[in-house]
Amino acid sequence: MNRLKKITGLSGRLILVVFILFLTFSFAMFQGGFVSWFIFYMALPFILYSILLTFYPLQDVEANREIHTAQVRQGGDFSATATIYRKYPFPLLYTVVSEQTNSPSLNKRLAGQQQKMIVPGFRKKVSWTYAVEQMPRGEHVLEGVHLEIADFFGWVKKSRLLPIQQTVLVYPNTVEIAYRPMESRYDQGSTAAPFTLVKDTTMASGIRDYQPGDRVSWIHWKSYARTQTLRTKEFEDRQSQDLFLLDDRRSSEKFELQVELVASILQSIVRANSSVAYLSVGHTRNYFPIIQTEEHLQRVMYHLAKVQDDLDKSAEQAIGRELQRMNTSSLLYVTSELSVDMVQAIRKNAKSLSNCTCLVIANKGEPLSKKEEDVHQFARSKGFIVRRVSPENFAAVFTEVSRQ
């Protein structure tokens, strides 16, 4: 249907050009005189060019795209060069080239930047370099280069999509976080925490560099006496402790910050030579049972580049089955909005938990509403550690949590 519409539209434009030719010729024949024939001969080159342009084969035009930025982070710049090749050196005048993509977020960024008018003339090869600033996170498919040519007065216009499908993956931003294994503890308050922990600090398995927030009792004083450098004892339970990271893809204006925090946490854990299990719940459940190497991390980053805030299930349906099979003592839950249902679902299904920390994303300076305060207090009464984090203190997430 679209092709038929294009053909009929082009035929209509050709009929218009032929009609203008007939009109100017008839005027010159019947009117006579220098002026009439001058008008005819002045219009003739433009009319002939329009007729020839109608039959110019765009099917023989090809395109190629070279992407200059192989890996892009959210908010970074993307640049590419599109090159058009053609077989016949037919003179082209007003030629508009533009990128075509099916990504709504990228189309917004491309507004006003994706089109460029060039005048190829007789050249068989024409290149066009463009840049897109502030790239949005996601998987963006570049469908091809849209080419549109026209004559002097716009009587004849032809267009074609030159297919060059390429995928641009924009990863979430990350911040450097100093990872510290989460320490299981009782929550202080009027209600006793339901989590229990037997912690043996009598047998040190090694020592490591001191980190802010380490207990004084864990400092290896003999090493300090020899080297004048603070070192901290490592215990067996700290080495063997596994962490389970959970985040929900609840629709929120702070979802991008949530993705950034999750990506930063996972990166810090892997670079600290530790391991973590990760569950991302939304319209689909994405479970990564172990993330320990850079290869594991890249798979998760690919997921985080494409993930959307599409949670449309209850908390029990979203996490119940996975938490029942979970065999870890520490749970780190990242969300943009803590809910009573999620707290109850975690408490009901995670039987082996000894420590659960909830990181709630907040914008800088955002006040805590009465409803949110009640939910946070409810979670604390059940033994959860609840902390609101904003972008400026992402880097101190583990340090601050350990001091809670």
Topology:
Layout: H1 2-31, H2 33-54, E1 62-67, E2 72-73, E3 78-85, E4 94-101, H3 104-110, E5 115-118, E6 125-132, E7 138-150, E8 157-171, E9 204-209, H4 221-227, E10 231-235, H5 236-240, E11 243-248, H6 255-271, E12 276-281, E13 285-291, H7 294-306, H8 315-325, E14 330-335, H9 340-349, E15 355-361, H10 370-381, E16 385-389, H11 397-402
Parallel strand pairs: 2-8, 11-12, 11-14, 14-15, 15-16
Antiparallel strand pairs: 1-3, 3-6, 4-5, 4-7, 7-8, 9-10, 12-13
Helix pairs in contact: 1-2, 6-7, 8-9
Transmembrane segments: 12-32, 38-58
Pfam family, one: DUF58
Domain DUF58: 207-350
What does this structure look like?
With 404 residues, the chain is α/β, with parallel strands linked by helices. Residues 184-200 and 236-241 have low confidence and may be disordered. The protein is elongated. Strand 12 and strand 13 form a beta hairpin. The longest helix is centred in the N-terminal third of the chain and has 30 residues, at 2-31. It contains eleven helices and 16 strands. The strands form four sheets. The chain has a six-stranded mixed β-sheet with strand order 13-12-11-14-15-16, sandwiched between helices.
